[in-house]
């Protein structure tokens, strides 16, 4: 499950799931999403509904990018290090076009998982955020960031930050799996069947 809720905050689980589902729908289905879902841009209405405000950082992505992100989501969930690195480092439309000095597969994998799913010790090695980023940069300096992935990764990080405020450990890829699979079933059925 994507959520590990602290007993005191179970009532926030529905709101967090809704936030994740809305952003998954925006990213995978529509290709237009709010890249800035920080807590100040989410209102909890008196009737329990969520109000999403300030769409000043809207990002549009084409279907090829959405397919790549769906593939990345599934590869992260399968701990497929090579596939994650391939998707990050291959040129569009097969990947995101990220480049690094050494093309280190492990570094590409750890950074992709960190930015798009979780920041657990198995990814960071127990390092804090700054130490982790410094370590990855020392091992394999970034030459070109995967531009189309940056804003999607920002959404993942910000939503995890919202969850952290309620003492919730969140795996974004787990919650986004159904949306990723639905897109691939429709837009790249051969890849979808290969991954099943």
List its salient traits.
single chain, two-stranded antiparallel ribbon, 9 helices
What does this structure look like?
With 196 residues, the protein is mostly helical. 57% of the residues lie in helices and 11% in strands. The chain has nine helices and eight strands. A hairpin with a 5-residue loop joins strand 3 (42-44) and strand 4 (50-52). Helix 2 (63-77) packs across helix 8 (172-187) and helix 8 (172-187) packs across helix 9. The two termini are 19 Å apart. The model is unreliable at 5-10 (pLDDT under 50).
Question: Using only CA atoms, what is the Rg?
Answer: 16 Å
One letter per element, helices H and strands E, the order comes to EHEEEEHHEHHHEHEHH
Number of strands: 8
Shape: globular
Mean pLDDT: 91
- Measured by DSSP, the beta-strand proportion falls in 5-15%
Structural class: mainly alpha
Would you identify the regions where 5 or more consecutive residues have pLDDT less than 50? 5-10
The profile of the biggest β sheet is:
2 strands, antiparallel
**Residue share in helix:** 55-70%
User: Spatial order of the strands in the main sheet?
Assistant: 1-8
Distance between the termini: 19 Å
Number of helices: 9
């Amino acid at each position: 499950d994507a959520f590990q809720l602290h007993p005191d905050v179970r009532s926030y689980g529905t709101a967090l799931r809704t936030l994740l589902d809305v952003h998954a729908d925006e990213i995978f289905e529509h290709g237009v999403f709010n890249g800035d879902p920080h807590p100040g841009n989410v209102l909890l209405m008196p009737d329990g509904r969520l109000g999403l405000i300030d769409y000043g950082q809207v990002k549009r992505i084409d279907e090829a990018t959405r397919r790549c992100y769906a593939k990345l989501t599934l590869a992260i969930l399968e701990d497929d290090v090579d596939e994650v690195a391939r998707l990050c480092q291959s040129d569009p439309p097969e990947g995101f076009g990220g480049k690094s000095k050494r093309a280190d597969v492990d570094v590409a994998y750890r950074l992709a998982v960190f930015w798009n799913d979780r920041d657990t010790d198995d990814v960071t090695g127990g390092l804090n955020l700054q130490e982790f980023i410094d370590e990855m940069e020392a091992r394999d300096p970034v030459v070109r960031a995967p531009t189309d992935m940056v804003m999607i990764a920002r959404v993942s990080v910000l939503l995890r930050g919202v969850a952290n405020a309620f003492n919730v450990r969140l795996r974004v890829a787990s919650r986004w799996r159904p949306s990723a699979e639905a897109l691939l079933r429709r837009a790249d059925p051969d890849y979808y069947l290969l991954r099943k």
